[in-house]
């Protein structure tokens, strides 16, 4: 297994200044990798900058929709491994700006894969996808063998990127692996339209939480550090997993109201909320079967909401006050 600890490896993290990308960069820096992180904009409140990761990694402004910018990064920095996280990540934004979402999430993935294809030094590409790639399957647990049936802009962008990644393996034997996650939470997610950041912001500020759905939408909840461990595990085992897709879910499969109740119980605090029921095009129920990665690489979630929430809440309290 080459370069098990990533020490002195050249690693490109697209979307490296985002919520999940920041945690990945932070871990790779600890492992003594030489990290190149792409950014699109700068938000001084973002986890990446408050943790001063810009001083520990090489931060490059790069729009992944521009092929030669991506290719130049891969060749200039002699990249060994790529984690492709750059995306337009919000379902409601995709509804308002479909072309931007499709363009970014599909063309960005193509540009990363194509850059890796024509650069022999690249040993692995980990593509971050989502449970949304499956679309509305109406079953208790989604399996990697289920069809990809996205039917709205965000979901279609993820289904398409997944299929394109698979095609690069099947056609060119590119060492690529796809990850599909449920709802990821943790320190640094400042997209407050997402449910858990929204709940914690309301808790910190004493605001009334506005729930866009009917409160019964169900998702798996997975702590960001479990996600990062999953990314690194797949990259380290690329010869065993290339060409595959893997679900990373959890046993904490909750509705919005159940999540609110859990947080109220954890903090002994009553939260105010209002159900708007105005959501459009979102999937009412999704939960991922992660037995494939559990059996093959022994991955399973190590963190549970009730145990890690106090730490996450502390981060939001500091960030918002």
Short description:
The protein is an alpha/beta fold. The chain is built from 12 helices and 12 strands. Strand 5, helix 6 (153-172) and strand 6 form a beta-alpha-beta unit.
Characterize the structure shown:
This protein is an alpha/beta fold and 321 residues long. It folds into two domains: 10-184 and 223-250 and 288-301, NAD(P)-binding Rossmann-like Domain (Rossmann fold); 195-217 and 252-284 and 306-320, UDP-galactose 4-epimerase, domain 1, CATH 3.90.25. Helices cover 42% and strands 17% of the residues. The chain has twelve helices and twelve strands. It has helices at residues 19-30, 47-50, 67-76, 91-96, 98-117, 153-172, 195-205, 224-236, 238-241, 256-267, 291-297, 305-320, and strands at residues 10-14, 34-39, 58-61, 81-84, 124-128, 176-181, 183-185, 208-211, 218-223, 245-248, 253-255, 272-275. A seven-stranded parallel beta sheet has the order 3-2-1-4-5-6-10, sandwiched between helices. A three-stranded mixed beta sheet has the order 7-9-11. Strands 8-12 form a two-stranded parallel ribbon. The longest helix is centred in the middle third of the chain and has 20 residues, at 98-117. The mean pLDDT is 95.
| Overall mean pLDDT | 95
- The total beta strand count reads 12
What helical percentage do the residues reach?
40-55%
Class based on secondary structure composition and strand pairing: alpha/beta
Gross morphology is: globular
CATH superfamily of the largest domain: NAD(P)-binding Rossmann-like Domain
Note the run of SSEs as H and E.
EHEHEHEHHEHEEHEEHHEEHEHH
- The helix count comes to 12
Q: What portion of the residues fall into strands of 2 or more residues? A: 15-25%
Quote the distance from N terminus to C terminus: 46 Å
CATH architecture of the largest domain: 3-Layer(aba) Sandwich
What about the largest sheet?
Answer: 7 strands, parallel
CATH topology of the largest domain: Rossmann fold
Strand order across the largest sheet: 3-2-1-4-5-6-10
Tally of distinct domains: 2
């Amino acid at each position: 297994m080459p370069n098990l600890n990533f020490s002195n490896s050249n690693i490109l993290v697209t979307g490296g200044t985002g919520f999940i990308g920041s945690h990945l960069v932070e871990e790779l820096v600890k492992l003594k990798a030489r990290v190149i992180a792409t950014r699109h904009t700068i938000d001084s409140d973002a986890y990446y900058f408050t943790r001063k990761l810009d001083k520990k990694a090489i931060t490059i402004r790069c729009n992944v929709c521009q092929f030669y910018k991506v290719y130049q990064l891969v060749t200039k920095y002699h990249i060994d491994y790529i984690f492709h996280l750059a995306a337009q990540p919000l379902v409601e934004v995709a509804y308002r700006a479909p072309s931007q979402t499709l363009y970014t999430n599909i063309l960005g993935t193509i540009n990363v894969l194509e850059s890796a294809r024509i650069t022999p030094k690249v040993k692995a590409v980990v593509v971050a996808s989502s449970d949304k790639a499956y679309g509305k399957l109406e079953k208790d647990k989604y399996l990697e063998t289920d069809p990809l049936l996205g039917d709205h802009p965000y979901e279609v962008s993820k289904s398409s990127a997944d299929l394109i990644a698979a095609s690069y393996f099947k056609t060119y034997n590119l060492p690529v692996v796809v990850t599909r996650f449920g709802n990821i939470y943790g320190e640094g997610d400042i997209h407050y339209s997402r449910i858990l950041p929204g709940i914690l912001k309301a808790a910190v500020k004493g605001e009334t939480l506005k729930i866009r759905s009917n409160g019964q939408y169900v998702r798996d909840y997975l702590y960001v550090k479990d996600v990062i461990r999953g990314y690194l595990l797949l990259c380290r085992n690329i010869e065993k997993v290339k060409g595959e897709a893997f679900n990373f879910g959890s046993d904490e499969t909750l509705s919005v109201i159940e999540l609110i109740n859990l947080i109220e119980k954890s903090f002994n605090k009553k939260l105010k909320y209002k159900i708007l029921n105005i959501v459009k095009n979102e999937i009412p129920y999704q939960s991922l079967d992660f037995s494939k990665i559990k059996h093959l690489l022994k991955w399973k979630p190590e963190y549970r909401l009730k145990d890690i929430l106090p730490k996450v809440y502390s981060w939001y309290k500091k960030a918002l006050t």
